[in-house]
Amino acid sequence: MGNTKSTLDSPFEAMVQEAERRGLECFIMQKPCSEGFWLAETASGYEVSYIERGRTSLKQTFPTLAFAFRCWLQQTLSFHNLPCLDAEL
């Protein structure tokens, strides 16, 4: 089957592994065009922010794309009421 035990045990980790395989860079947003959580590259690293009605109400900064992506994915799944099983930031 090609899946490892850890992938089968943790849907969140499986999503992270697939995103890493495809390239995390494709999840970076250049400019928010709607409401929700956004992953952006900044001069000092990466940031995850929540934008609603044109205003930023949450902003977290990270030194690496991997940490920022994990936060963005967890926040996005939670926002849509999807479980983040075994999510570790």
Description:
The protein is α+β, with helices and mostly antiparallel strands. It has one domain (5-79). It is built from three helices and three strands. The chain has helices spanning 5-9, 11-22, 65-79, and strands at residues 36-42, 45-52, 55-62. Strands 1-2-3 form a three-stranded antiparallel beta sheet, covered by helices on one side. Strand 2 (45-52) and strand 3 (55-62) form a beta hairpin. The protein starts with a helix and ends in a 10-residue tail after the last helix.
Q: Main β-sheet: number of strands, strand sense, barrel status?
A: 3 strands, antiparallel
Give the tally of β-strands: 3
**Total count of helical runs of at least 4 residues:** 3
Low-confidence stretches: 1-8
Rg value: 14 Å
Q: Whole-number average pLDDT?
A: 84
Query: Cα distance, first to last residue?
Result: 28 Å
Given helix and strand content, the structural type is alpha+beta
Q: Proportion of β residues?
A: 25-35%
Give the strand order of the largest sheet, numbering strands 1, 2, ... along the chain: 1-2-3
| Run of helices and strands | HHEEEH
Shape: globular
Count of domains: 1
Residue share in helix: 25-40%
Topology, pairings included?
Layout: H1 5-9, H2 11-22, E1 36-42, E2 45-52, E3 55-62, H3 65-79
Antiparallel strand pairs: 1-2, 2-3
Give the tags.
single chain, 89 residues, alpha+beta, 3-stranded antiparallel sheet, 3 strands, globular
